[in-house]
Amino acid sequence: MLLIAVVAVVAAFKFFERIDNGYVGVRYSMNGGIKDEALTQGVKFVGIDKVIQYPIRLQTIQAEKVSVSTSDGKKTTIDIKYDYKVDPNKAAKMYKEFGNITSEDIESGWLKSKLQKVSREVYAKYSLLDVLSGDSSKVEAEVLTSFAKSVEAKGFEVEDVTLGVPDVDAETQKSIDAIIRAGQENEKAKLDAETAKTKADSEAYKKTKAAEAEAEANKKVADSVTDELIRYTEAQAREKHGWVTVNGANIVVTDKGN
């Protein structure tokens, strides 16, 4: 009985395959070929067939020291990180293309080769200073687009690429530092100019508002001077100082006050 139990346990391990979470399995046999239907997550009965698993959830891969050359003849290396997964509908086709090798082998072999080829083509369009001083986002976008397109037919879906900073020699580093300083000085000059303009605008605004306030006050005074107010003011003056009569070149002051 013990022997039978042991055989049953061994058979269970041999005839069943556990498909990991985030993976699909491709089932194949020596005499029957590949089963087109991919095995999903869980424990599956496979008999004596073999199973190879491919990731259908995002995998983050780090490719270190990828060699490239820029348009100005600078040779450098970069670290590239990318995220990819396998289209589950193309898993069987992928096995037909690559055979009985793991996804890790594909990552370090075929995928890395494609990434390096694409990276060299893209970097060859830019100078090293362009890459380091302003066009890094363009380079990254181009590498992502080209890399994703070059591998999608095989069933790989690349969703993101992150490029590291290229290694540079001392001379190139000096040029980069000079560009950075120039940029900082330019930004400072712009800020100073904007500050001066803001201050000038503020002073002009204050003067304009003061002039408007004065004009408004004068208008209110002018509007308040009516004929009745003039006659009233004249009557008060006459009551206090008397009449002033102008007769030719002579001025006669007649006091009619009380």
Automatic annotation (TrEMBL):
Any one annotated GO CC term: membrane
Task: One Pfam family, please name it.
Answer: Band_7
Parts forming coiled coils: none
The Band domain covers: 18-195
PANTHER family, per the entry: MODULATOR OF FTSH PROTEASE HFLC, PROHIBITIN FAMILY PROTEIN
- What protein is this chain from? Band 7 domain-containing protein
Q: Organism, per UniProt? A: Enterococcus devriesei
